[in-house]
Amino acid sequence: MSECDFMRESMPMLLTESLDPVRREHTHQHIEHCTACSDDWTAYQETWRVLEELPVVEVPARVKDRFLAQIAPPATLPSNVVPFTRRPALKWIAQAAAVVVIAGGSYFTGHRTKPVEIQRTPAQVTSVTPIGAPQSQFSIAESRVLPASLINPNIEGRPDIENVQFERASTNDEQITLAFDITSRVTVTGRPTDKSMVRLMRYVLENEDRLGPSRSRAIDWVKTTYSRPGNADPEIATALANVLRNDEHQGVRIKAVETLKTLQPSVGVSAADTRDALIEALKSDPNPAVRIKAVEALANLARTGAPLDTETLNTLRLKAGQDDENVYVRMKAAEALSNVKP
Questions:
Q1: Domain for residue 205, yes or no?
Q2: pLDDT tens track of the chain, all 342 residues?
Q3: Residue 283: domain span
Q4: Most exposed of 172, 265, 266, 285 (fewest Cβ within 10 Å)?
Q5: What is the CATH number of the domain that holds 291?
């Protein structure tokens, strides 16, 4: 039996917290590093959640009467028979049994050699309770205060918990407080146009601390992703404009301008904040390569027919006639002016 098969057999017990600490920790570590087992674990958790939210369907009276008639005639039914009542406290046992049945059924289906005929009886549902859309539960914030009821008692893996602080129980409600910093790995998936993904990418671009890989590689990834038709977003353009203004590395500023140039046709007329950043770079960036990229971006705007405001036109005229400016910058500024519609 492979290690993955062994881990899949452990997942139902992991859901019900039935594994010993050593095996539980080993299983979580394997799930974190194995893509296939991670997908299986996610499926188990989703099945568990759906089973928990399914409505309780009462047994129809005729089915109950038929069952009692088969095990004992109504006239001879003992007086001390207590009707069966579903006990909510055992609901997790039913969930675990369902998950085990699903896992066993999947294994049997993949290994059986001949079809098995099953006589099916249509199920009867007396009522259906709709399940609402899942609400956002994870927020990225510098600090959060959470009630203990929202914390999963099962701690997965070995997250780094530091700077722990304890507070005494309040005399009024007898609550205690435990504060700490935690370091954990978070993987976010979604469409490039999802607002949460756009906001997250903007934060990553504008905050270089602990950014890995480098900001330059991050901008390359943004350029590839958000230059596609339909993916461009004004917030990404604003983030790149802030990088152009503030980053001290000329290579990063050049990449920021190049990416802004590819985003402009999709976003439309460059937002005022983005246009102002290009003008600032053209006026005062100390590196001529950055100024060249900035004037190319403004020339690209003019070439696409986008209207240019008075400040942009004045800046281009100034650069086109500036004797001490780079020759290529002067030529591109004149080219941009020639493409401006009267």
A1: yes
A2: 577 888 888 888 877 777 777 787 788 888 888 888 888 888 888 887 777 777 777 778 887 788 777 776 555 545 555 555 555 444 555 555 555 555 555 544 444 444 445 455 554 544 444 444 445 566 777 787 877 877 888 888 788 888 888 876 556 666 778 888 888 878 888 888 888 888 888 888 887 654 445 677 888 888 888 888 788 788 888 888 888 888 888 888 888 888 888 875 444 434 566 778 888 898 889 888 898 888 888 887 777 766 777 888 888 899 889 888 888 888 888 888 887 766
A3: 195-338
A4: 172
A5: 1.25.10.10
Contacting residues for 225 by C-beta, under 8 A, at least 6 apart: 192, 231
- The answer to whether residue 134 is domain-embedded is no
Residue written as token pair 């055992």: 90
Can you give the pTM of this predicted structure? 0.51
Q: Are 281 and 257 in contact (CB under 8 A)?
A: yes
Half-sphere exposure for 213 (CA within 13 Å, toward CB):
8
